[in-house]
């Protein structure tokens, strides 16, 4: 049986920004260093990433704010200056003297002959690289206009950006833009990875995410409790070899339900993905007009448009929703499936229109062993909120969805979130090339196949999402993101699931 390795590394754990602020001083003390030492390490780490990104860039523009984020920026500026770079440091209030560790970093920059200038687009045009040290993790309200103007100018330019800890203007916990947000090429985050950097708009804004524990990771991990975990393919052992003395029934009987008139492709993608993910037998219940389209070219699928009750009795696991629709036929099929699975409990995956129909009849059914796979729009309907609400607080609404339906919720999108009411995981893999018709249908088939093969609900959700997203990454590495179609994922999924 598949299981995850014990993931003790902080590079796979997420911590809310306030947890880092609360515990970093004690973690530094327990590690035998001062907070200013952490600032020096942070600035050095940022400069190292700048060199990695653009080693031949000679002109740096470091834009600083007023807190510890600015202190990291001053240290990065010093390191660049010491390396022979031409460095311009700009601040919203150039004459403001900072206090504490940030003040010490500022003083060292000035003592080294550095200047603090007013930001201008002329300086931006000269720069080969921008270091964003304006706003750190402490900001939770909409940013001031003077910062917004600088952010707009930086985003409008083609100059690469390295952000310190979090892109300025991004809520570190939710990934929500606070009015304006830097679109970084690289974000170097410290001590603990903040959840807002891993999902939704935050994943887009931070670019490549680089983590540095600044040498206090072990002490910090003993003080703070992670809010979620990142998932990548290396955390899984794989499913292992099959027993020699086994047969098709050993690996589950999966029923895929959907494919209304005109939408046969969705249930075909889902059911074929299930076959490629190792399900022993896959039967499809679909609309009478869709049977030929679903079965054509894939004789391994058993396709029917009648005797739904018989098909449900046969099945050990059910996927319902891809191409189901919301008309009278769809409602009748949905009702039959849900009533059967209430009286004869078996693992289920509810996707696409099944989620919309569930929203209409949420109080009519109690689901015991189910994975829900909404995108933001479907989650919004399930919870009675707006899509913008969901995208602004993806972690919160994934948890609400899991709690309301007592299910494992897979909230799809950039940085897909898995929540089981108690714990949260985020997929590290995935790319925009997967934003294509049918990709979610393939995921539902993978999840159904893993459940049919006996994996627990949570392991199936975590592993299925990871394999699906990593398959997309592998294809993008081979062929690029544009032009990827859902059925391209089949072979890549098959290879991963056999590793």
Write up this protein.
It is built from 19 helices and 18 strands. Helix content is 43%, strand content 15%. The chain folds into two domains: 17-226, Rossmann fold (3-Layer(aba) Sandwich), CATH 3.40.50; 235-497, Ribokinase (UDP-N-acetylmuramoyl-L-alanine:D-glutamate ligase, 3-Layer(aba) Sandwich). Helix 2 packs across helix 4 (100-111), helix 9 (264-276) packs across helix 17 and helix 14 crosses helix 16 (394-405). InterPro entries: Carbohydrate_kinase_pred_CS, CARKD, Nnr, Ribokinase-like, YjeF_N_dom, YjeF_N_dom_sf. This is Bifunctional NAD(P)H-hydrate repair enzyme. In the C-terminal section; belongs to the NnrD/CARKD family. In the N-terminal section; belongs to the NnrE/AIBP family.
Q: What is the strand tally?
A: 18
Radius of gyration of CA atoms, rounded to a whole number? 26 Å
End-to-end separation: 14 Å
**Number of folding domains?**
2
Strand order of the largest sheet: 1-9-18-17-16-15-14-13-10-11-12
Q: Output the CATH homologous superfamily of the largest domain.
A: Ribokinase
Instruction: Could you tell me the CATH topology label of the largest domain.
Output: UDP-N-acetylmuramoyl-L-alanine:D-glutamate ligase
Helix content: 40-55%
Please state the structural category. alpha/beta
Estimate the mean pLDDT confidence: 95
CATH class of the largest domain reads: Alpha Beta
Overall CATH architecture of the largest domain: 3-Layer(aba) Sandwich
How would you describe the shape?
elongated
What low-confidence regions span 5 or more consecutive residues with pLDDT below 50?
1-8
The major sheet is characterized as:
11 strands, mixed
Strand content: 5-15%
Tally the helices. 19
Catalytic activity: (6R)-NADPHX = (6S)-NADPHX; (6R)-NADHX = (6S)-NADHX; (6S)-NADPHX + ADP = AMP + phosphate + NADPH + H(+); (6S)-NADHX + ADP = AMP + phosphate + NADH + H(+)
InterPro entries: Carbohydrate_kinase_pred_CS (IPR017953), CARKD (IPR000631), Nnr (IPR030677), Ribokinase-like (IPR029056), YjeF_N_dom (IPR004443), YjeF_N_dom_sf (IPR036652)
Keywords: ATP-binding, Isomerase, Lyase, Metal-binding, Multifunctional enzyme, NAD, NADP, Nucleotide-binding, Potassium
Binding site for K(+): 69, 132, 168
């Amino acid at each position: 049986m598949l299981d995850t390795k014990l993931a003790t590394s902080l590079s796979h754990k997420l911590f809310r920004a306030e947890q880092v602020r609360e515990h970093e001083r004690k973690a530094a003390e327990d590690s035998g260093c001062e907070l200013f030492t952490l600032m020096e390490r942070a600035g050095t780490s940022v400069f190292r990433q700048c060199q990695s990104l653009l080693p031949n860039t000679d002109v740096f523009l470091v834009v600083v704010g007023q807190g510890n984020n600015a202190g990291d920026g001053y240290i990065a500026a010093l390191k660049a200056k010491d390396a022979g770079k031409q460095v311009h440091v700009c601040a919203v209030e150039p004459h403001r003297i900072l206090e504490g560790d940030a003040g010490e970093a500022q003083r060292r920059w000035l003592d080294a002959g550095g200047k603090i200038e007013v930001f201008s687009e002329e300086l931006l045009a000269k720069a080969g690289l921008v270091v964003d040290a304006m706003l750190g993790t402490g900001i939770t309200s909409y940013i001031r206009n003077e910062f917004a103007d600088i952010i707009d100018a930086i985003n409008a330019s083609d100059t690469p950006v390295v952000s310190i800890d979090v892109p300025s203007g991004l809520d570190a916990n939710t990934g929500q833009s606070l009015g304006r947000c830097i679109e970084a090429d690289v974000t170097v985050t410290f001590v603990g990875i903040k959840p807002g950097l891993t999902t939704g708009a935050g994943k887009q804004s931070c670019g490549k995410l680089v983590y540095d524990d600044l040498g206090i990771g072990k002490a910090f991990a003993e003080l703070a409790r992670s809010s979620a975990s990142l998932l990548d393919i290396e955390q899984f052992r794989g499913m292992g070899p099959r027993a020699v003395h086994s047969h098709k029934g050993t690996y589950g009987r999966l029923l895929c339900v959907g494919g209304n008139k005109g939408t046969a492709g969705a249930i075909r993608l889902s059911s074929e993905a299930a076959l490629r993910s190792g399900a022993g037998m896959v039967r499809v219940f679909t609309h009478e007009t869709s049977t030929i389209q679903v079965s054509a070219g894939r004789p391994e699928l058993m396709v029917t448009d009648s005797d739904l009750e018989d098909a449900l009795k046969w099945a050990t696991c059910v996927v319902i929703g891809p191409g189901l629709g919301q008309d009278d036929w769809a409602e009748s099929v949905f009702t039959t499936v849900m009533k059967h699975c209430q009286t004869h409990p078996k693992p289920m995956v509810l996707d696409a229109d099944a989620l919309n129909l569930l929203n209409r009849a949420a109080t009519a059914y109690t689901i015991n062993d189910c994975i829900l796979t909404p995108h933001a729009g479907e989650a919004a309907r399930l919870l009675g909120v707006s899509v913008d609400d969901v995208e602004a607080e993806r972690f919160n609404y994934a948890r609400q969805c899991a709690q309301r339906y007592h299910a494992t919720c897979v909230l799809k999108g950039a940085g897909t979130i898995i929540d089981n009411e108690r714990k949260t995981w985020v997929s590290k893999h995935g790319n925009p090339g997967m934003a294509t018709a049918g990709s979610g249908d393939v995921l539902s088939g993978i999840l159904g196949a893993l459940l049919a093969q006996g994996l627990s609900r949570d392991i199936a959700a975590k592993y299925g999402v990871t394999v699906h997203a990593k398959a997309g990454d592998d294809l993008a590495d081979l062929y690029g993101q544009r032009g990827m179609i859902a059925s391209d994922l089949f072979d890549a999924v098959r290879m991963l699931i056999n590793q």
